[in-house]
Design a protein that fits this description.
The complex is a heterodimer of chains A (about 350) and B (about 325). With about 350 residues, chain A is of the alpha/beta class. Chain A has helices spanning about 50-55, 85-90, 105, 115-125, 130-145, 150, 160-175, 190-210, 220-225, 245-250, 255-260, 305-310, and strands spanning about 5-15, 25-35, 40-45, 65-70, 75, 80, 95-100, 180-185, 210-215, 230-235, 235-245, 315, 325-330. The termini of chain A are far apart. The chains are: A alpha/beta (about 350), B mainly alpha (about 325). The complex binds adenosine-5'-triphosphate and magnesium ion.
Chain lengths: ~350, ~325
């Protein structure tokens, strides 16, 4: 295996909430790697810590109330981002690692033209002159498929539709040709048809620019089309990690099973509302009060005493590839016979 | 944008007109004759009558009003009872002084207010924020004239750093001509401008802090950080530009505050501006001057709000576009 581009190990990001409800352990021991050029999908229900994970990588967690616990490691090309000086960190943000956010409506600054906002990173990181940077901004607008880029470059965000703004966000993120793009639910706020276009655009740009992508979503359908590997998150932890094909063919964690069962299929009309998974009973617990033992056990059809008492570690599920290719945080791996639903 | 501006202008003129009318009649209802209420100024009846005719007070009220309006169109505000000169001339002498004072105070108000507000927002909840916030609250709750008296006492009386009042050294600088006299003028300006500015800044800082805190939480600020910008640029370019929008309204509101504040402060510091002119006129029942000062002050305030509105449109592209076309200017990152 090659040296990973990004290695996250035992990341813990906690929020100390003022209202006395205690510490929210939003991300609680997450580990994963991203190889150069690959797409890692990160999937999980709302509130499981996907956004906090991605913000932690660029150290964009608001402090206070949040903080990344000592002992966490986020290595990018071998350097621990958590110990970088502000200046070194800035040289990576927007340059080597770029990010796009869920809400294209609110992620662009309303008082500056999209051209200026795209050009800014190029001016800051590559020292381009304003004029050259403007040309670059026009090029980026063209690259992300916006018609009339020469005219659009002087427009303000409110003059554009949601899909166009997300294209602008992508152009802004890619202007310095980053090695890693973190896309946090880039299509959640968009219409279905626009969603497909944006995903297609990301795929095309990834191939053209050869970057790695961390694609965060709560929609396994999105991941199926674009990710090489998938990490499934639940309650601030990674509960299953596998190559996409293996995950879809052989989901091992009961939570993954549930997620897959709720993916709309062509032969069965979708029985789920946007973002809500009906086939898994119950709700994600609050980040301030994760259950003891396995965090999924209150919702798990197979749970037994051990699940309530002891948190399972990430276990190797075997399968194809080298050890550690497919890992699952579930005691069922030690007692496969129990995989029969309770009556 | 042009049509909108015309509409705003017409509305402004209407407001000024309404205030002229109200002031005119209210002052007349207060027995505004050269003789004043009976018994207060013992003038012989024949002198009194002669003056009434001379100033046109013997005519019907509506005729007087009509004449006042006609004269106003030529910039005339009538004749002062006590100063023995046209009201317009007296005001013309006073306006520049008040204007300079208000402008200097405005500068202190916003420069200090914005800086403190931003500082507080960045340190929200920490010692610096709380300390500045408490001091600002204290200053903001002081009466302007009282703060003026305290500053006078400390800096003029005890420390003798600044003069105790007036606008310039009457012996060396009867007129502003030499560089020395300009310095002398500025030296006289410091305390009154600081008094007025400090009280304003305390309020401005509160607004700026709130506006900035609101903006700092926005996602586009996070986007700016994710780009790898310096924190200073994130705050002073991406956040501040948005946080200034609500502050511009405050800018419009600052004008009335500065003018009313100037009335008190000019009296405390013997500053020969409109405020002092108006206060003296009220005490001497010099009604044409009172009316004239009120009309002028209103005009200034309305003008201030108009400027604030135009500024708003310049800073916020959403408004600019709404109001027809991406009119000139516009910002860049
Ligand atoms: N600024 C914050 N202050 C306090 N708690 C926070 C903060 N940000 C996140 N959290 C906590 O972290 C948890 C995980 O949030 P996160 O935004 O990462 O979820 P997510 O997986 O991205 O969900 P979604 O699909 O809704 O975007 C939340 O449940 C919340 O309790
Ligand atoms: Mg999220």
């Amino acid at each position: 295996m090659t040296e990973p581009l990004l290695r996250v190990r035992d990341l813990k990001t906690y929020f100390v909430t003022e209202q006395g409800s205690g510490t929210a352990r939003a991300v609680d021991g997450v580990s994963f790697e991203v190889q150069p050029g690959e797409t890692l999908g990160i999937v999980g229900e709302s509130g499981c810590g996907k956004t906090v994970t991605s913000l932690s990588i660029l150290r964009l967690i608001p402090e206070p109330p949040g903080h990344i616990r000592p002992g966490s490691v986020i290595e990018f090309e071998g350097r621990n981002l958590l110990t970088l000086e502000p200046r070194e960190l800035r040289a990576i943000r927007g340059n080597q690692i770029a990010m796009i956010f869920q809400e294209p409506m609110t992620s662009l600054n309303p008082v500056f033209t999209v051209g200026d906002q795209i050009a800014e990173a190029a001016i800051v990181h590559q020292g381009l002159s304003r004029r050259v940077a403007r040309t670059r901004a026009i090029d980026m607008l063209r690259l992300v498929g916006i018609a009339d880029p020469e005219e659009r470059v002087d427009h303000y965000p409110h003059q554009m539709s949601g899909g166009m703004r997300q294209r602008v966000m992508i152009g802004m993120a890619l202007v310095c040709h980053p090695k890693l793009l973190i896309a946090d639910e880039p299509t959640t706020a968009l219409d279905v048809t626009i969603q497909a276009q944006i995903l297609e655009l990301l795929d095309r740009l990834q191939a053209e620019l050869g970057m790695a992508v961390m694609l965060i979503t709560h929609d396994l359908g999105v991941v199926a089309g674009s990710a090489d590997r998938v990490a499934v998150m639940y309650a601030g932890q990674v509960v299953e990690q596998a190559p996409t094909a293996a995950l879809f063919a052989r989901p091992l964690h009961p939570y993954t099973e549930g997620l897959l069962a709720s993916v709309p299929r062509l032969d069965a009309p979708p029985a789920r509302e946007h973002g809500r998974l009906h086939s898994i009973p119950g709700q994600v617990p609050a980040a301030t009060a994760w259950p003891d033992g396995c965090r999924f056990h209150p919702r798990c059809p197979y749970a037994w005493e051990r699940c309530r008492a002891e948190m399972p570690p990430l276990l190797d599920a075997g399968g194809e590839g080298e050890p550690g290719t497919h890992t699952v945080r579930c005691w069922l791996l030690t007692e496969p016979r129990r995989r029969t639903p309770h009556p | 944008m042009a049509a909108w501006l015309v509409r705003r202008l017409v509305a402004s003129i209407a407001i000024v007109f309404a205030v002229v009318t109200i002031t005119f009649f209210v002052v007349r209802l207060a027995h505004g004759t050269p003789c004043g209420p009976a018994g207060e100024r013992p003038l012989p009846p024949d002198v009194c009558e002669r003056q009434r005719v001379q100033f046109g007070y013997d005519q019907p009220l509506l005729v007087q009003y009509g004449k006042y309006l006609v004269a106003l169109r030529h910039g005339e505000l009538g004749e002062s009872f006590g100063l023995h000169r046209p009201v317009a001339d007296a005001l013309a002498d006073a306006i520049p002084n008040t204007f300079t004072l208000a402008l200097a105070a405005l500068l202190v108000d916003f420069a200090l207010g914005l800086a403190l507000g931003i500082y507080q927002a960045v340190r929200a909840g920490r010692f610096g924020d709380v300390a500045v916030g408490n001091v600002a609250l204290l200053v903001n709750s002081m009466p302007v004239f009282w703060l003026g008296l305290v500053l006078l006492l400390v800096f003029a009386q005890w420390l003798r750093w600044f003069p105790a009042g007036g606008i310039h050294n009457p012996i060396l600088c009867p007129r502003l001509l030499s560089p020395y006299c300009l310095l002398d003028f500025l030296w006289h300006l410091v305390l009154p401008a600081l008094t007025l500015g400090l009280v304003g800044a305390a309020g401005t800082a509160r607004y700026q802090r709130a506006a900035m805190l609101e903006v700092i939480r926005q996602e586009y600020v996070r986007t700016a950080r994710a780009k790898g910008l310096r924190e200073r640029r994130v705050l002073l370019v991406h956040a501040l530009r948005n946080a200034l929008l609500p502050i511009i309204t405050l800018f419009g509101l600052a004008f009335p505050f500065l003018f009313t504040g100037a009335v008190l402060i000019e009296t405390v510091f013997a500053w020969p501006g409109m405020g002092r002119l108006a206060v003296n006129a009220i005490f001497q029942r010099d009604y044409p001057v009172v009316t004239g000062a009120a009309v002028l002050t209103t005009t200034m305030v309305v003008l201030g709000n108009l400027i604030a509105d135009v500024l708003y449109a310049v800073v916020d592209p959403r408004i600019r576009v709404q109001r027809g076309g991406r009119g000139g200017g516009g910002g860049s990152v």
